[in-house]
Amino acid sequence: MAILNFFLALLQTPAIILAIVALIGLIVQGKKFSDVLSGTVKTSLGYLILSAGSSLLVTEILPFVGLFQEVFNLSGFATGSEIIVGAIQQSVPIIASTSAIIMGVGFLVNILLARFTPLKYIFLTGHMMWISSVAVAFSLYEAGFGNGAIIVIGSLIQGAVLTLLPAISQPVVRKITGGNDFAIAHLTTLGTVSSAYVGKLVGRNSKSAEDMKLPEGLKFFKDTSMSISIVMFVFYMMVVLLAGPESVSAYSGETNYIIYGILKALGFTAGVMVLLQGVRMLLGELVPAFKGISDKLVPNAVPALDVPALFGYAPNSLMLGFIFATIGMIVAMFLSSAFFGVVPLVSIIGAFFTGGVAGIMGNALGGRIGAMVAGFVYGAELILFSGFTYKLFDHFAAVGAEGTGHDCIDAMAQMTIMKNPIIGIIIIAGAFVLLSMMELRHQKKATANASAQ
Amino acid sequence: MHIVCVCGLGMGSSLILKMTVEKALKELGSTGHMVEHWDAGTVSSKNADLIVTSADFQERFAGRENVLFINNVVNTGEVKEKLKSYLEKRHL
Fold first, then answer.
1. Closest Cα in chain A, distance from residue B77 (Å)
2. Strand order of the sheet with strand A121-123?
3. Which of A27, A365, A389, B41 could form a disulfide with A223 if both were Cys (CB 3.0 to 4.6 A apart)?
4. Which residue from A414, A383, A331 is spatially nearest to A164, judged by alpha carbons?
């Protein structure tokens, strides 16, 4: 009995489960013993570093949340899916351990679906897999399912969602890249694609943004540590100055209130950096293991990659998308406070990486006007949806993540429709069938075109 | 040689690129390398012999000789060709 309990406890420890997933992946690929050992240990270490980063950034954001409430009488929170899922994993062990299994088994479901359905996409963006697995486990946990059901249903949902998302963006991606070499694997697909189509409506026939000249100075936003520091600095300064030294001293003690604001802003960024380092280490072994397995089992697969795979195709549209997404986010902060009484802070990572993609897609469909409109609409969608879900899930307080919210639209959509699990599952299954049919039609057209030439 | 693959966050494209680089090196029969993936913001703290990154980082690494820019991070052929000419130039 003692031994059984030991193994059960082992399987409820996320750091160990993830190590086991990596271990299996590495053994299946026939790696050397030394590689298997180091890969397994590093995966575990990666998870522990990630947790350390999460606890740090939560302690650094809480004073902001408190002061923001005092000053504006509204709930402000930082937006970043990595941030919130890290915090949830840290405080709810059941979500942490089930999501780890969902990530591994969900990948196998992705492989099977790619092998046997028309959707040939293998989702290879590790940090998005991770965010999705936690969002899925969270939804099922919230709906009151037990561990076993969370793992089984969760893995199926995870696999289906990750197979179908690249299919949604692929028609636009083909237009950008001129081929079918790769697809995009990201949890912002619904947002970027929908805003690109709005850009198409408005920007019809405008010239491509790639013929414009843009200022160079904005490029440093690519540097994550700088861009988060700047945003957090601006917002932390705003609340400490408005709250004044007296209110701040309740949090800061003897430290000068302005210095306290600077330290907390940078401390939050430091937390994000530690978290990202952990994620990098955690995924460094898992993703290659996954890819090795899929290369063997699905030879005609289309690899779905992280969004920067598109950046080189349209650098001007990327910057336009970024700038206009930031503007859209700022406008939506006010809208969200009016509609939902909560204020999501601008997600600068979201604006650069995925607002940029909205711009690139918008440009492909609707020229430079399309790029600007798509960026703006995307930024607004993201912040409004983030405010909506923050309110819908009672500030994520019950799962220890108050003060943080999502910025990945697909994860938010998944959580929202899974509020009623039956409806959620029907929508996901329906979307899968619909996209499979569209994919078949595209393939037929492509073969017809090829034979006509 | 210590090769560092770089992208913005250091966890998506750079990791895919790392797999492509490892595959290309294997096909070239070139051994004894350590390949890592990292983010652009802190890569200056890495003591890399060679940086491999995607084409959109041209300006960031402008003027450096030990950087290869890759247009398609899953294209083993492209990576192989660029690595090969780099290794030949360096007589490695």
1. 13
2. A121-123, A302-305, A183-184
3. B41
4. A414
For residue A252, CA distances in Å to A68, A75, A235, A246, A247 come to 15, 20, 17, 10, 9
* Cα end-to-end span (Å), chain B: 9
pLDDT band at B51 (very low <50, low <70, confident <90, very high): very high
- Residue A453 is assigned to a structural domain of this protein: no
Which of A303, A291, A308, A306 lies closest to A186, judged by CA?
A306
A450 lies in some domain: no
A76: helix, coil or strand? strand
Architecture of domain B2-89: 3-Layer(aba) Sandwich (3.40)
Task: Give B-chain residues touching A216 at CB under 8 angstroms.
Answer: 59
Of A283, A305, A312, the CB nearest to B56: A312
pLDDT mean over A84-91: 92
Residue A225 near residue A273, CB atoms below 8 Å: yes
What are the pLDDT digits (tens) for A354-385?
Answer: 999 999 999 999 999 999 999 999 999 999 99
**Average pLDDT, whole number, for chain A?**
90
Distance between CA atoms of A435 and A424, rounded to whole angstroms?
Answer: 17
Residue A29: other Cβ atoms inside 10 A: 17
- For residue A73, the 8-state DSSP code is S
Tell me the residues of A at the B interface, defined by beta carbons under 8 Å apart. 124-127, 181-182, 216, 219, 222-226, 273, 276, 279-280, 283-284, 287-288, 291, 303, 305-309, 311-312, 315, 318, 349, 352-353
3-state secondary structure of A183: strand
Which residues have C-beta within 8 Å of that of residue B65, sequence separation ≥ 6?
none
Q: For helices A33-72 and A81-91, give the axis angle rounded to 10 degrees.
A: 100
Using alpha carbons, list the distances in angstroms from residue A100 to A168, A191, A279, B15, B47.
Answer: 26, 26, 13, 20, 33
Which of A219, A305, A349 faces B73 most closely, judged by CB atoms?
A305
Q: Cα angle at A272 between A158 and A385, to 5 degrees?
A: 50
**Tally of domains in chain A:** 1
CA dist A338 and A143 (Å) reads: 29
Q: A218 pLDDT exceeds 80?
A: no
Residues of A in contact with B75 (CB under 8 A): 181
The whole-model pTM stands at 0.84
Domain annotation covers residue A194 = yes
Q: Report the pLDDT averaged over residues A315-319.
A: 85
3-state secondary structure chain B: CEEEEEECCCCCHHHHHHHHHHHHHHHHCCCCCEEEEEEHHHHHHCCCCEEEEEHHHCCCCCCCCCEEEECCCCCHHHHHHHHHHHHHHCCC
In A221-318, beta strands by DSSP E: 302-305
Q: What is the DSSP string of A138-160?
A: HHHHHTT--HHHHHHHHHHHHHH
